[in-house]
TrEMBL record, chains A, B:
PROSITE patterns listed in its UniProt record: NUDIX, NUDIX_BOX
Cofactor: Mg(2+)
UniProt lineage: Bacteria, Pseudomonadati, Pseudomonadota, Alphaproteobacteria, Rhodospirillales
Highest taxon above the source species: Bacteria
GO molecular-function terms, A-Z: hydrolase activity
This protein's UniProt keywords: Hydrolase, Magnesium
Matching SUPFAM superfamilies: Nudix (SSF55811)
Organism: Dongia soli
Hydrolase keyword on record: yes
Protein name per Swiss-Prot or TrEMBL: NUDIX hydrolase
Family: Belongs to the Nudix hydrolase family.
InterPro entries, alphabetized: Nudix_hydrolase (IPR020476), NUDIX_hydrolase-like_dom_sf (IPR015797), NUDIX_hydrolase_CS (IPR020084), NUDIX_hydrolase_dom (IPR000086), Nudix_N (IPR029401)
A Pfam family it matches: Zn_ribbon_Nudix
Amino acid sequence: MPEQDTKKTISFSRQVPEGDGRERDVCLNCGFVNYENPKIVVGSVAFWGDRILMCRRAIDPRRGHWTLPAGYLELQETPEAGAVREAQEEAGARIEIDALLAIYTIPRISQVQLIYRAHLGDDRIAPGPESLEVGLFTFDRIPWDDLAFPSARWALHHFAQSRALHGFPPFTNPPGETGNLEVGGL
Amino acid sequence: MPEQDTKKTISFSRQVPEGDGRERDVCLNCGFVNYENPKIVVGSVAFWGDRILMCRRAIDPRRGHWTLPAGYLELQETPEAGAVREAQEEAGARIEIDALLAIYTIPRISQVQLIYRAHLGDDRIAPGPESLEVGLFTFDRIPWDDLAFPSARWALHHFAQSRALHGFPPFTNPPGETGNLEVGGL
């Protein structure tokens, strides 16, 4: 393909489009409005017996810290399919979705997280390119002092609270918590 | 501000970024990856006694048809706040969120819809710029033959099923339904 076919030139200006109430990037050539909106993160608390699947991050932010398999939902993907894909990509795991465990909002970074409760089909796991290592932890052996994000801690505790529940409303952010990383710990 | 300060020139190429598995728009100048991901629609089934708030659309798609107050979640906004804002903007309504009624996925257009059950603080409503008219309908008087979207129909039926429920898991797409508009009706 000739190089010019793979390039496009766009000139944007910050404007409030007609009928809108907020500034957006508007193309000065064609009027296209580049709406930016929050992104959806999908993930899971996946268990095998009394152990929970976790991944140690190989990428920033929070490289080297532990979290749940989770990532951005892709175009044309259902949230459930996205959570299954992330567990496969990050931990080589085959999971089956059981319930929507939680919906968390991290307004500062405009993320909405849909975290599912899931069970592992077997205990064969292996780190994918974005994980340094993966592990199955009983609740008291979770690396609590080395978690990557507040929402991972929330989800683990909400999972524990949900163990006896069927047909429950999804948990949300703990009262007053925004999901921001705090200096001095989570 | 001089005009050149409000313009930027970007040249994108479709590439698979390192460590990624999908083609993205990558800036040929700086390597910026323009990830495109599904968008979140937030809305509500808001009731006043035995009547439900609906809006007749003043904009495409489906101008002239009836739907629930709903729209795109904005940056730095929680889903609950977005649903409250949309009811205000589209119907001049003051609502209080009661529960997460449903999560629907429309994969074709990469939308995840978070629909809340809410009650109106009073029955003063008025069409906003995106509504031709607004109304409060008992269930049997809903303009069923003139609904804008399949997901509005789903939400109304799920709302009816939820009336006696407290602390329930959110409903999801009816089995086999994708949310696509079908020729010949919803």
